[in-house]
Amino acid sequence: MITLNKILVPTDFSEGAEGAYSVAQNIASTFGGKIDFIHVIPTLKYVNESIKRLGVPLDMNKDVYPKVIDEAEQKLKKAMGSYLRDENKGDYFIKIERKPSETITTFANKNGYDLIVMGAKGKDESVSMRGTVTERVIRRSKVPVFSVNKRFDSNKIENIVVPTDTSELSISAFPLSAALADTFGSRITLYHVIELYGSVSEEIPRTAGKGEMVSVYEALIERINNFLDKRKIDNIHIQRTGVTFEDEVVITDGENSRSIPLFTKIDKGVSAHYEIENYAGEEADLVVMATHGHSGLAHLILGSTAEKVAQYVKKPVITVRPSEEDFAG
Predict the structure, then answer these.
(1) Could you tell me if 136 and 268 lie in one domain?
(2) In a domain, 20, yes or no
(3) Would you call 199 helix, strand, or coil by DSSP?
(4) Strands 187-195, 294-295: parallel, antiparallel or unpaired by DSSP?
């Protein structure tokens, strides 16, 4: 069962960071969760040392940081009061640390959060679609990270694209995508690229008379259902409709059940990340992907395909880091 009961929203109070507030509230409203905010004040180590060398009668810890903390506290209270409902309002935290991204991920990992929701860019004006802090949080976090831009509209999430290389690690993003599709009233599209110079799916036996793409599609659906069974996620399963590449995700809630349209799209290309970026840019309203997949001969902390997609795809992205159980296979 997927739960999103505890959500963390990092903020630097920029316009970009503000875009995450309403998204977090939308998710919390559905799952009945609590939303905490965190603001990290970067340490001014070198400024402090320079002031001491100049003999200026100013102590950062006594004269500067208390004022900055007080200002941040007022901004956090205002933001939470403006964007969050009382029943979903949690706590706020202010940290003074040298590396904001490390502080955010360590805090989220240690305190049992189910999801981090943050602006794709805060005050950082990097060239890529996601700022440096957001990229580093995606790299380090064991908690799923939802990075949204300021134009995100939760009422217009019609198609959630889930890139997969057919490996169990990439499939680990599927349960969250199903929960979010249920939340936003969306359809899901599984997207796989058969790379011309070799990909994981080439290990899948080709069924005579069905062709390569149909063989990969049928194996992928079977692998997802096996994954759900093995992880004991018994309220989600894929139901075949008899129409190739078109199925349903059935979510069971007690005696009731509801279905989500599921499509599978398989393309051929030289580069998986290039094809994913192009397809997602045209077809996706939201991308949900595992941050571990096959890359060369090794599993990387952030596979090269996922890294490039997370950096450059021009759509909201949720990255999911597989659990230790998923690595164990």
Answers:
(1) no
(2) yes
(3) coil
(4) unpaired
Structure tokens at 286: 């939201």
Tell me the backbone φ, ψ of residue 71, rounded to 5 degrees.
Answer: -65, -40
Residues 112 and 141 occupy one common structural domain: yes
Please tell me the number of Cα atoms within 13 Å of 65 on its side-chain side: 16
Identify the three-state secondary structure at position 42: strand
* Domain stop point among 148, 173, 208: 148
Residue 143's domain is classified under what CATH number?
3.40.50.620
Q: Characterize the bridge pairing of strands 34-42 and 286-290.
A: unpaired
Residue 137, domain extent? 6-42+74-148
**Matching residue, tokens 């194996």:** 219
Q: Which two tokens stand for residue 8?
A: 């963390």
Same domain, 117 and 262: no
Here the tokens at position 38 are 């965190």
pLDDT tens by residue, 89-142: 999 999 988 889 999 999 999 999 999 999 886 555 444 445 678 888 888 888
Q: Which of these, 290, 287, 284, 275, lies nearest to 321 by C-alpha position? A: 290
How far is the C-alpha of 63 from the C-alpha of 324, rounded, in Å? 45
Q: pTM for this one?
A: 0.82
Same domain for 275 and 168, yes or no, is yes
Q: Which residues does 114 contact at the CB level (< 8 Å), separation at least 6?
A: 3, 4, 5, 6, 7, 33, 143, 144
What secondary structure does DSSP assign to 248-315, as a single string?
A: EEEEEETTEEEEEEEEEEEEEES-HHHHHHHHHHHH-SEEEEES--EETTEE-TT-HHHHHHHHH-SS
Q: What torsion, rounded to 10 degrees, do the Cα atoms 138, 139, 143, 148 define? A: 0
Element (H, E) at 319: strand 317-320
Confidence of residue 227 (pLDDT cuts 50, 70, 90): very high
Are 167 and 141 contained in the same domain? no
Q: Are residues 210 and 264 in the same domain?
A: yes
For the chain, give the longest Cα–Cα distance.
Answer: 83
Token pair belonging to 263: 């499509």
